[in-house]
Amino acid sequence: MVRRRTRQLKSSAVESVVLAVEMFNRPATYARAAGVLLPLQHALEMLFKAAIYEARGTIFPRGGAVSFKFSECLSILRSNLNLLTDDQVLVAASIDAHRDAVQHHGSGLREQFLFVDAMSGLTLFRDTLLAAFHERLGDYPAFTGRTLPVAVDPPREFTAIVDSDMRYIADLLRPGHRRRAEAMGLLRPYVLMERVTAVGEAVAQPTDDEMDALADRVRLDPDWTRLLPGIARLAFDSSSSMAYELRITKSKDAPPVRLVSPEEPAAGEAGAILEVEVLKRFPFNVTELGRQASVNQFEAEAIVFASGFQSDPSLHRAVDVGSSSRPQIVHRYSHKALKTMREVVERGGLREARGRYSAHRREARLIRSSSGIRPADDQA
What we know:
Shape: globular
Number of helices: 14
Order of helices and strands: HHHHHHHHHEEHHHEEHH
């Protein structure tokens, strides 16, 4: 029997996705982007929480009073429940970031880009409902008879949408047009999507300074693929029928996107969206790393120790955040470290990591008790 709480969450999700479709198809264009993205993001979040509740009997972290955030739901559904693929996470995280940009930063999306969010979000909703509950969206009375998002000019290639929008944004940024604010609002969703393609999960909003630098790049450089290399790899899934569904996937034959350091010769050609600041490239402490990978503190420390994170400069950095008179070293971990931790969990390596870390701690306690010297804490 389906839990009452699960049924409530699913009902809220279906109501919200119906509202998103209705807002997309209504004749009026007032508040169009907000009217679509707010209920669409809410629909996905409620459906994700319904799936988590069905599997775990709770949507709260251990000892927490606030339910899982959207980003935490993505992590659980991908790494623990295996209900989302990397491409589906890309779609969900992009919609979440676009909703935040519209709701809190006054951004907008042009018609075809908004259709991509609406149709790919609806496809993701339908696929997740089927995978998690073996239910079809069309069988819900609230959705029965509802039409799909209707595009006046349905997009055929994702890069063609980006190219058109970048040209439009560049034109708004031309000297004398006085439409920079509008251009920045249209550019922000693409900046966010680029970040999502780089890290594969929910991302933070860019700062005003970052947006200014990126806007100048768009105005001066007609080749947007150098600015948004991750987006340049995206394409519509050719196995999908555009009339009924839309999925976004990373192109398998496109060159990989990588971060470069300021010292590398290629740094001058790198897109401005790729950040080199240490705390941005290594955003997690071990507690946050564990939370994102849906493991507890001890398990996160165990994986960090057993997998040798701190000996790999692409996974770990020791950063001095103190002053010259009082240095304070903190250990930070990258998105690659998070991916590696998830892979350890997925392949069943957690038990071995716990065993090795427990043995290490026992040995450390023996050294401390016999010598009186406290060993350095590997996970500080």
